[in-house]
Each structure stands twice: as C-alpha cells, then as structure tokens.
Amino acid sequence: MIRIALVGDYRADVPAHQAIPQALQLAAQSLDLPVDAQWLATVSLTATEQLACFDGIWCVPASPYRNMEGALLAIRHARERNLPFLGTCGGFQHAVIEYARNALGWADAEHAETAPDAARAVLSPLACSLVEVKDKVALSPGSRLARIYEQAVIEEGYRCRYGINPAFAAELASGPLRSAAHDQNGEIRALELDNHPFFIATLFQPERQALQGTCPPLAAAFVAACCQNQMQPRKTL
Questions:
Q1: pLDDT tens for each residue of 104-141
Q2: 223, 35 in Cβ contact below 8 A?
Q3: What angle, 0 to 180 degrees and rounded to 10, lies between the N-to-C axes of helices 217-230 and 15-31?
C-alpha cells in the first residue's frame, strides 16, 4: 500500500479538497497501484516522526493554513529526505517560503497574505487575481513537468490571489529550485527541485481535472514516484 500524506486543513466546500482524493484514486487505477491518502491537519503536525510512515507528501490548496509551521515542517521533511513532494496552489506558495527560509537562509521570508508589511514577502498579491480562472501555461523545455505532460503548453485552472513576488523571483529560481512553467507574461507558475526524486510545486490546481473524471498527469506521476520511494530503504529519522 502506498501511503500519501495530504497536508492541509480539510474543508468539504473547497473544490480542490474534493478533487484530490479522486485524482489519487484515478492515478491508482491507471497505474494499478493501491493508494491510501491520509489528511494531516497543519495544527497536528509538530514533529517529523509523524511523517515517517508516508511514501509521499502532497501539500494541498486552501491557505492560509491554520498553522504555517506545520506545513513548512512537512515540506522541509520532503525536501531534505528526498521524499516525493507535490504542492499545489497554497502548497506551491509554502514550498517557496520553506525554500527561502531554510535553503537560502532568508529567515525573514514571509507571505503577504499573513504578513502584509513584511520586508521580504516572497509571496505577494498577483497583478491579476486568478480566482476560478483558466489560463495557458508554458512548460520549461527539459523540465520534469514537460516530460510528464508531453506538451509545451497546457491549460490549467487556478483559485489564488498570491504568487511569487517579482522582486525575489530571479534569486529564488536561480539555484536548485528552478522555474518549470510560466504564464504568457513570464510569471512563474511552477517550480521543481534539481537532484530530488520528485519535488514539484504548481500555482495552478491540476487535481481539478479529476472532477470531470480525467486522471491528472501530474497526480499519476506523483503516485508513480511514491511507489518508487516505497521500494527504497527507509531512512532513520
């Protein structure tokens, strides 16, 4: 059984939260793999030992989270332990914060949604809100994301008001964390981490395809990566 942690604060009225279990089930069926997904509320996440039994982590939409530190703990665990990670929407935003704080050493990195006066708000309001909007996304040539979709341009849905602050975008994506997709204006819409088995974060919500009965390619790739991880020797925490 492949065990996946869904890190976030579940709400039945959030379309993405309805879609993610369906996306994982469709992925499991397409790959003929057994998958068990467990929701982990951010307020309950206080130690990495709570994540030891999982083969992958999906940090889900609908932020601000009740406990940002719980989400950041899970993301850092996935990044440093080479555990397959997928972050969508709010998961993308918090992957940026975690990387900025713990990989780049920007201890003051913040999210403008929760710290609007922060000097280093690495997430800031989008010039145009992307709430219930579909838009074209260009995938970076040679990226893992481009290989997964097998297309140069895709169309995906959003429900967000915040993205990477342009003032910090170049420095954030100049090292191992790289832009994997951008919109028609050149704004970063997905990131992936070099030298990691699977670490992808998207501002868009690919899981929504499952609400129409379609298996999202990114969900299938994530489940496949979790299966590969399961076959590796467990690391001691």
A1: 999 999 999 999 999 999 999 998 889 998 999 999 99
A2: yes
A3: 60
